[in-house]
Design a protein that fits this description.
Length: about 325
């Protein structure tokens, strides 16, 4: 791994790094912010996946996540959106395909299969590199993204529900197998057999039985791509058909995207425990977020999804059971600090 740049920010370190990727058969670049708390311990990891035409740098330049990540003690990793280089096949006049448009899938068609393996890169190769070189606690991971990256976050989480404690997306492409701006790319990467596309479509993964406890989805109502490319209502419909519904939420520009989402992932990683209220069904792994109505007995441990197994509860914010979410288990107490 090579250091491309290093800068200080909010008491932490913002770095950009490159490495030779065996999975993508080229050099890959990513950014990583390490907050000041990393001097004393390993910290939760939050993955941010960017959208079409983007690189690792877009969220660094356009979204100020470092202040809140520093407060919450989150390591934030921002990968690139595709393989790049002179030997990587590309369509330079097509912003919806090729470099900058890897769609977080593993291509099976030539000439793209050699390089465009972004799912395996995000799910396996890059995490191994991160844990070996950064103070990352891989037992506490979360993932989110924007647009194509929102699609990536949803599908990666659905296929790895035990790995990530939380998942959210801003204006995601929820059904890329039918969207006008992603369907052509899917056919080039994966071939004409649309059955193989289902593995990279959040709505179809849910239809096929994949589950994740809870999603937060933000969507601006004035988005120019809302009707053709994004269509968040398709995700909501898929969730309604599933028994353990992830409850996506939709909002406009008034909701501060990065602050809200970072706070969500911080709570799920035991870092910021204020205002947490989650009902967890151990049998079905379903969750409901609701308004707290009833405090439960103190001294009990939280479910394993939110804390380390058998971790005792201490004096912290109350975790409460909602009357709106019955039935549900009663193994709730105070959130461990």
């Amino acid at each position: 791994m090579k250091v491309v740049s290093i800068s200080k920010s909010h008491g932490g370190i913002q770095g950009v790094y490159s490495h030779a990727s065996e999975v993508c058969a080229c050099d890959m670049t990513f950014a990583a912010f390490v907050p000041p708390q990393a001097k004393n311990r390993r910290l939760p990891v939050l993955w941010y996946l960017s959208g079409l035409t983007c690189t690792h740098a877009n969220v660094m330049d356009k979204g100020e996540y470092r202040r809140l990540a520093s407060e919450l003690g989150l390591v934030v990793v921002c990968p690139d959106t595709s393989p790049r280089g002179p030997d990587v096949p590309d369509e330079k006049d097509n912003w919806q395909f090729g470099c900058g448009a890897g769609f977080y899938l593993d291509a099976t068609q030539e000439p793209y299969a050699k390089n465009y393996r972004m799912y395996f890169y995000i799910a396996e190769e890059l995490p191994a590199l991160v844990v070996a070189n950064f103070p990352a606690d891989m037992s506490r991971q979360a993932i989110f993204g924007h647009s194509m990256g929102g699609h990536g976050a949803l599908t990666v989480a659905l296929k790895n529900p035990q790995r990530y404690r939380s998942c959210s997306a801003f204006a995601p492409v929820v059904q890329p197998s039918t969207a006008g701006w992603s369907r052509p790319a899917f056919e080039k990467y994966l071939g004409s057999d649309e059955k193989t596309w289902r593995a990279y479509d959040a709505t179809l993964l849910i239809e096929d039985g994949k589950r994740f406890p809870e999603f937060l989805v933000d969507q601006g109502t004035a988005d120019g791509f809302l009707q053709d490319g994004l269509r968040p209502w398709l995700l909501e419909e898929s969730c309604k058909k599933a028994r353990d519904r992830p409850h996506p939420a939709h909002a406009g520009r008034l909701r501060p995207f990065l602050q809200l989402h970072l706070d969500l992932h911080g709570r799920s990683s035991e870092v910021a425990c204020r205002a947490a209220c989650v009902i967890y069904d151990v049998t079905t792994r379903a969750t409901w977020s609701a308004i707290a109505r009833l405090e439960v007995r103190p001294g009990l441990s939280m479910p394993k999804r939110l804390t380390r197994p058998s971790m005792p509860c201490v004096a912290a914010s109350w975790i409460t059971k909602s009357l709106l979410a019955s039935p549900g288990p009663d193994n709730f107490g105070r959130m461990p600090l």
